[in-house]
Amino acid sequence: MKLLAFATSNSRSSINKQLVTYAASLLEGVDVEILDLNDYELPLFSVDRERELGQPELAKQFLQKIADADALLISFAEHNMSFTAAWKNLYDWCSRIETKVYQGKPTVLLSTSPGGRGGANALEAALKSAPRFGADIRGSLSLPSFNDNFDTEAGVVSNPELDTQLKEVVASLK
Question: What does the pLDDT profile of the chain (174 residues) look like in tens digits?
């Protein structure tokens, strides 16, 4: 199985990337590719830019990565109670090329934040919209209070109960 994993953040020190990287490591015998959203930075989407630029090659490449995967593991960063601008922009470009951005792939959605809600707003929005854009949602988990529940030096969830929940939800991809 080929697993595509990424965080919807363009921060070089993204806590969501740390979470999704750890979560991907929980699946044994799986070929994992972890993407960095910074590799897919595009001009701000608008229909005027779309007319001018057409379909950007980076958006096509991102969609091809999804097409080549057997399953998706995505951790949603949250900015101001919503998706990050970096993710929304890439997603908007991609959806103009392929409406079913997630292409029917089995998908697990995660989120985390420093706060007690763990990026729950972005995760809830993703859970609501992703199936309409072709995601086969197999499970989801919000990890609250990242700094209290994740050991950044070891790169693991430090809260045993949350770690068990994460392992269960990630296992639903196999």
Answer: 999 999 999 999 999 999 999 999 999 999 999 999 999 999 999 999 999 999 999 999 999 999 999 999 999 999 999 999 999 999 999 999 999 999 999 999 999 999 999 999 999 999 999 999 999 999 999 999 999 999 999 999 999 999 999 999 999 998
**Domains detected in the chain:** 2-171 (3.40.50.360)
Burial class of residue 88 (count of CB atoms within 10 Å of its CB; 0-12, 13-18, 19+): middle
Two tokens at 170?
Answer: 């990630």
What does the alpha-carbon distance between residue 31 and residue 4 come to, in Å, rounded to a whole number? 9
User: Which residue is it, tokens 């949250």?
Assistant: 78
Looking at residue 152, its amino acid is: T
